[in-house]
Amino acid sequence: MLESGRVVAVDDDALWVETIRQSTCGSCSAQKGCGQGLLNKLGDGKRNHIRVLLGGAAPARFKIDDQVQFSVPDNVLLQAAALVYLLPLCSMLVGMGVAHEWFDSQKVAALGALAGFAIGFALVRLHAVINADNPKLQPRLVPAAENQGENTSSPVRLA
Q1: CA 87 to chain centroid
Q2: What backbone torsions phi and psi does residue 93 show, to the nearest 5 degrees?
Q3: Residue 138 and which of 11, 24, 69, 79 are 20 to 30 A apart at CA?
Q4: C-alpha of 19 from chain center
Q5: Are residues 10 and 37 located together in one domain of the fold?
């Protein structure tokens, strides 16, 4: 999955790339119950900023407003979606079950569910902080020749 973007900041070890989301929310049948549709409505609905590790490339090769391409491996997207959605949900259910078992009260079970959800959300955030610089979970810098199947020296693309 290739995505295009514009460099908005260059750090010592990463690029910040602004992408413009090509949303299909208007034609989706689940648009009213979807979190992505809600996020589109809260912001301008079009722009995202993604941190892309340089992977050994010199930061001086990039400047603000450079156009680049990048991709994140499909398995990383699937794992991230499962982590973000399932971990808080599972921890909420465990929190509710444990609280109900220990106290035998529906009110306490509801508080246990809320606490479990908060713990699951905190674990997701902790995972994000720990893996912020993990090259296996970030877009990787690849020469443009690899994307185009050529052996020419051309601008660097992220993939």
Answers
A1: 15
A2: -65, -40
A3: 24
A4: 13
A5: yes
